[in-house]
UniProtKB/TrEMBL annotation:
Family in the record: Belongs to the Gfo/Idh/MocA family.
Keyword entries, A-Z: Oxidoreductase
Name recorded for this polypeptide: Dehydrogenase
PANTHER family: BINDING ROSSMANN FOLD OXIDOREDUCTASE, PUTATIVE (AFU_ORTHOLOGUE AFUA_2G10240)-RELATED, NAD(P)-BINDING ROSSMANN-FOLD SUPERFAMILY PROTEIN-RELATED
GFO/IDH/MocA-like oxidoreductase domain segment(s): 126-242
Residues covered by the Gfo/Idh/MocA-like oxidoreductase N-terminal domain: 1-118
Species lineage: Bacteria, Bacillati, Actinomycetota, Actinomycetes, Kitasatosporales
């Protein structure tokens, strides 16, 4: 098949490399506002260059991967759907929930699949956890703990435009909690602090946060996030039930050091970058998209799925600012 890529920054170029190595992909068409980025990708992967999204859609593509700036996501998703071309778009659907809901309405009723990029759904550990929970191996769940700790914050300009740590970082935890447990969040309580980079506080954001989520069956989920984790990039999940407990991310590259006598685990070099931690997951995610394009599977992460994680982020942001519990119903009605 012939796949188009809109946006060739860090993640777009990474996706181009991944797609070029998939057996199902015969050729690529690439486009970026910066001509040099498109030219470099074309030379590296033998891709055709299109000078605009419209030209790319007219180039006979079977599917499109959107890795452009967030502000462009709504227009590009709807343009692809209106052209009848299946689309994969990195999260978020849009910068605001209002815009995201409008995108959902715009594509409703059209028989064109849209897949939103939440790569943890394709990580082997999270897939195994999802299967274990759905098979009832843990019995009734009572506690979930989800962690995302970055080794260092992104640049100040990124932070200022990110929408805040809950919308930018924690949203991955929110999505994977929903996916693994199969439950919805009903209420949140969030806290945050600033112990590191001043530019994060100046942007009105927190660099370290914690959130307690109440799920609709009474399960408690605890989410921990930070922009500062000196030992590396730490993504983990624990799922505890009355019959058993399991964990994702407890492997030799875990960026955590045990001080127990005689314990040598973990023994590997810690993960220090999200692309390192999730290389295989990204490949599986884009492989899934080729299956969506081929019509052999439905979208594994729809716009509606992505918006549900977004509503949790909105509730946590409000909770942090107002120092109180917030229900999901409250933010939906705001």
């Amino acid at each position: 098949m012939r796949i188009g890529i809109l946006g060739l920054g860090r993640i777009g170029a990474f996706h181009a490399e991944t797609l070029s190595g998939l057996d199902a992909v015969e050729s690529l068409v690439v486009s970026d506002p910066f001509a040099d980025a498109a030219k470099a990708a074309a030379e590296r992967f033998g891709a055709q260059v299109a000078d605009s999204p419209e030209a790319l859609l007219a180039a006979g593509v079977d599917g499109v991967v959107v890795a452009a700036a967030t502000d462009a996501h709504p227009h590009l998703i709807t343009a692809c759907v209106e052209a009848g071309v299946p689309v994969f778009c990195e999260k978020p659907v849009a910068r605001t929930m209002t815009e995201g809901v409008e995108v959902l309405k715009a594509v409703a009723g059209r028989d064109v699949p849209v897949q939103i990029g939440y790569n943890r759904r394709f990580d082997a550990g999270f897939v195994a956890a999802h299967a274990a929970v759905r098979a009832g191996e843990l019995g009734t769940l009572h506690t979930v703990r989800s962690t995302t700790l970055d080794p260092a914050p992104p640049p100040a300009a990124y932070i200022a435009a990110s929408g805040g740590i809950f919308r930018d970082c924690s949203v991955h935890d929110f999505d994977i909690i929903r996916w693994v447990t199969g439950r919805e969040v009903t209420e949140v309580y969030a806290v945050g602090g600033n112990r590191g980079a001043d530019f994060i506080k100046e942007a009105g954001d927190a660099d370290t946060t914690g959130a307690v989520l109440t799920l609709d069956d009474g399960t408690i989920a605890v989410v921990s996030n930070s922009r500062h984790n000196g030992r590396g990039y730490d993504v983990r999940m624990e799922i505890h039930g009355f019959a058993d407990s399991i964990a994702v991310g407890l492997e030799d590259k875990l960026p955590l050091r045990s001080v127990e006598p005689g314990v040598t685990f973990p023994a590997g070099v810690p993960h220090d970058f999200f692309m390192d931690r999730f290389t295989d997951a990204y490949r599986a995610e884009l492989t899934a998209f080729t299956e969506v394009v081929a019509g052999s599977r439905t979208s594994p992460c729809t716009i509606a799925d992505a918006l549900e994680a977004g509503w949790i982020a909105e509730a946590c942001t409000l909770s942090l600012h107002e120092h109180r519990p917030v229900t999901l119903e409250e933010v939906r009605q705001a």
